[in-house]
Amino acid sequence: MSTRIALITGGSRGLGRNTALHLAEAGVGVMLTYLSRSSEAEAVVAEIESRGGRAAALQLDASDTTQFAGFADRFAKTLDEVWQRKTFDYLVNNAGFGVHKPFAETTEEEFDSLINVHFKGVFFLTQRLLPLIQDGGRIVNVTTGLTRFAFPGYSAYGAAKGAVEVLTRYLAKELGARGIAVNSLAPGAIETDFGGGVVRDNPDLNQFIAAATAMGRVGLPDDIGGAICSLLVGDNQWMTAQRIEVSGGQNL
């Protein structure tokens, strides 16, 4: 059996990096994308290879659809060179960033930047990669707990992720004939550098969120990377079109 291969957008840091390491530990070959920090991406590749896995990194601006055709070509070439494969098995649409701004103050430029990476980019990158996804493969779209509960300041971000959750169901419907399972995974508040690391580095906010979480703490990257890995490599192919929240029971 050939090695299973995953593509993780935004895999050089945060939840993407953690997911890459979990998948590598499960024996999955990892292709990750990065926007500008090539050294961080290469560090993830080196860490995976030091553990006996295989990985590669490619630059991609996931908000720029004009890059997608060229990226798909480079990706296909790397698949062949590194793994001698023409297809891959798992797509994790993870790349993104947050904007914390009151609705009344959010600019059109900020709105467009969020939509371009979190929704338009996910839509058209997945479309471009469809010929390379193995029948019976799996797609996970990383969304957010903020599509279920609302915190002031995240209206544009939460709305963009909500669009991805609807798209997930449509993808599941249209790709089901190929045996491709498509789900969205919605993290709660996690201690990463997302949003400037505010959840991780602000003790008052961290304590506030922990108090509103059934399991009594803020999430850690391992909580999310492990969950995404289990969605991809676990025995759950019959599960599709679902929104899975991994938040420790935040804001119930």
**How many angstroms separate the termini?**
43 Å
Low-confidence stretches: none
Query: Which value, in Å, is the CA radius of gyration?
Result: 17 Å
- The DSSP helix count reads 8
What do the pLDDT scores average to? 95
Order of helices and strands: EHEHEHEHEHEHHHE
Strand content: 15-25%
Secondary structure: helix percent: 40-55%
What is the total tally of β strands? 7
Q: How do the strands of the widest beta sheet line up side by side? A: 3-2-1-4-5-6-7
Derived structural class: alpha/beta
The profile of the biggest β sheet is:
7 strands, parallel
**What is the subunit organization of this protein?**
single chain
Output the CATH class name.
Answer: Alpha Beta
Backbone shape: globular
Counting structural domains, the number is 1
CATH superfamily: NAD(P)-binding Rossmann-like Domain
CATH fold assignment: Rossmann fold
CATH architecture: 3-Layer(aba) Sandwich
What would the keywords be for this entry?
alpha/beta; Rossmann fold; seven-stranded parallel sheet; 8 helices; 17% strand
Outline the structure in words.
This protein has 252 residues and is of the alpha/beta class. The protein has a single domain (5-245), classed as 3-Layer(aba) Sandwich (Rossmann fold), CATH 3.40.50. 44% of the residues lie in helices and 17% in strands. It has eight helices and seven strands. The protein has helices spanning 14-25, 38-50, 68-83, 108-129, 155-175, 198-201, 203-211, 221-233; strands at 5-8, 29-34, 55-59, 88-93, 133-142, 181-187, 243-246. Strands 3-2-1-4-5-6-7 form a seven-stranded parallel β-sheet, with helices on both faces. Helix 4 (108-129) links the parallel strand 4 and strand 5. The model has no long low-confidence stretch (mean pLDDT 95).
